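I'll show one example:
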Amino acid sequence: MDKSAFEDRKAIIAGPMHGSLRHDSAHKHVTGTADYIDDIPEPAGLLHGALGLSDRAHAEILSIDLSAVAAYPGVVWVFTGKDVPGVNDVSSNGSHDEPLLVETLVQFHGQPIFAVIAETRDAARRAALLAKIDYRDLPHWSDIDGALANGSPLVITPMTLRRGEPDTEMSNAAIRLKGQMRIGGQEHFYLEGHIAVAIPGEDDEVTVWSSTQHPSEIQHIVGHVLDIPSNAVTVNVRRMGGGFGGKETQGNQFAALAAIAAKKLARAIKFRPDRDEDMSATGKRHDFLVDYELGFDAEGRIHAVDATYAARCGFSSDLSGPVTDRALFHADSSYFYPHVHLTSKPLKTHTVSNTAFRGFGGPQGMLGAERFIEEIAYAVGKDPLDVRKVNFYGQPGSERTLTPYHQEVEDNIIARIVEELEETADYRARRNAIIAFNRDSRYIRKGIALTPVKFGISFTMTAFNQAGALVHIYQDGSIHLNHGGTEMGQGLYTKVAQVLADSFQVDIDRVKITATTTAKVPNTSATAASSGSDLNGMAAYDAARQIKERLVAFAAEKWDVGPADVVFLPNRVRVGEIEIPFPDFIKQAYFARVQLSAAGFYKTPKIHWDRKAGRGTPFYYFAYGASCTEVSIDTLTGEYLIDRTDILHDVGRSLNPAIDMGQVEGAFVQGLGWLTTEELWWDDKGRLRTHAPSTYKIPLASDRPKIFNVRLAEWSENTEASIGRSKAVGEPPLMLAISVLEALSMAVASVANYKACPRLDAPATPERVLMAVERMKRV
């Protein structure tokens, strides 16, 4: 094989689909030229909106006087729920429990009651503070304990997972223990807050630019509140400055308000809340209270698990059903439970309705499982890693492959991942050295932990596992790509463009990535559940397949060769013995009247789920990973440092290793924030007090591990027919940060010579670490 033929073959095998190409907007992010919605030139006559928020947690509205608001200079219109043309509801699941503007009953502090439209944003915000509202206060509770104490209703029917005989087999276990774990919530803290611009059109038409992960839902909600069909609403999204789940449903209210005002006033409207308002009026990660009973033997092998997962859901259901479901789906982490009973308890509280956040309940379920392992390890006097290993799921064919929801784990590589990381991180020697250090150190104590990740990939709502893509090839050979996924910095656009460039064997710069819009690809799912690349990449691949089949048929007929003799090579097409540059080939196909456009479609195979029965195959496959973290704590103050973290993560055959590495690193640091520094706090009046950067502490660059070693498992390849045999990377690596909490726990346990489980709750702020140290001193 000559050199040119070898290079051609190499390009076909590797192609741009598995290359470390830069993010398509990276240079724009760095130079500040990436356009976000607030950067779009303002239309003539643009007006600005602001929210009028409640200052009660739970109260009946007796009267509203908005005269001073309306009289403020620059105010054009003030409207309430009574002015909504259609249905005054923005609930994402059809439950009709989330009013756009509350009319009679306030259910959380900061709930929108009215909206102000003015000539300037400043005027709208100042006017919104002038409302006079009389309330009759009602009893309120803002946390899980208050909800339980007051017999709070559930926001949605809970789910139960059961397998085996947990009731009787718990009694047969050699050792039993009970415990409780509190797991904190988390604010999304995207760099770009919520924003929407609505531009009125002819008749009932309206165009909305929204910072949303779910354009089709915005389309549906806007049609809902305006009482117009979806075909009159166009929603556009070029990019978001971060989403993390917070823009899956929470953008509904801002888009709906902007659209109502735009149609009423026949002028463009922009809503961009202040950071304080954004944090007060939009949902967060659910915090959990996990009550558990464990049965196990002297080797630490789990026999039975019985656990209840209570969650602070807020005033409405939002996505709390699927979030608490996914917590149960991941309550096994990487471990086989022979007998198990798991129940969710989605509690109503008088707080903003909690919503999707990276991991979508999975991190809370998985963190609970790692507490189970920790409890068992201290009870039997073993290294937690050894207890983890003895409880791992087995290989296909063994009896240890069935999850609590009765799905077989068919692609299990967790043992290999953990063993490889254990060796490369030198875990055993470092743990022994840490134990020796703690024995001699008076004030500084160290800890180390190696924890696994097994995360299910797919929407648990089966219908959401579908995607569409629209691909055009123009006469000059340039390619236009549009699909239903949204770009929030995670590199989805780049990856899907790589798929398309690989399919046609052209340079990536020949593919134009265009803004997501409901006018091109309809009925899209949210870009969530880590499935953006899986779904949209396959949809784009399907569109390319259709066009290529037409091109191959055209070439075979024109040049009188067999279809197998038509081969796409880098930037050219070989037809029999001749080679034609790709643009020339496309030009000839156009003149032969070959259709050069296709709508691709993909739906995930194999999956099905029966929530009522608690049985099915909700996940197409699992993504795996492991992390090893070493920490140092000051036992006098509770302050700590993260000395080193080693990560080995499974992304299958990576579509773009550079982007995937960035996702793993970023997810770990975001998970680190959730488990250490980020604490949500409501006061006794139901007011969120951690509502700004001054009071809510996300991790900084200086908080990252001092030594940070991250590797992808290059030997891994998805056993399912995913795009390029890759695996999802968005959510799974967030749970790698659990090793940080476990390492902190070991450092605390050293104060009592490792005699008891510290039961360190999350977030493990310095205050909580110090309190845990003081508890250990009394053991």
Remarks:
- The chain has three domains: 25-33+466-603, 46-138+194-272, 383-460+610-777.
- The radius of gyration is 27 Å.
- Residues 1-14 have pLDDT under 50 and may be disordered.
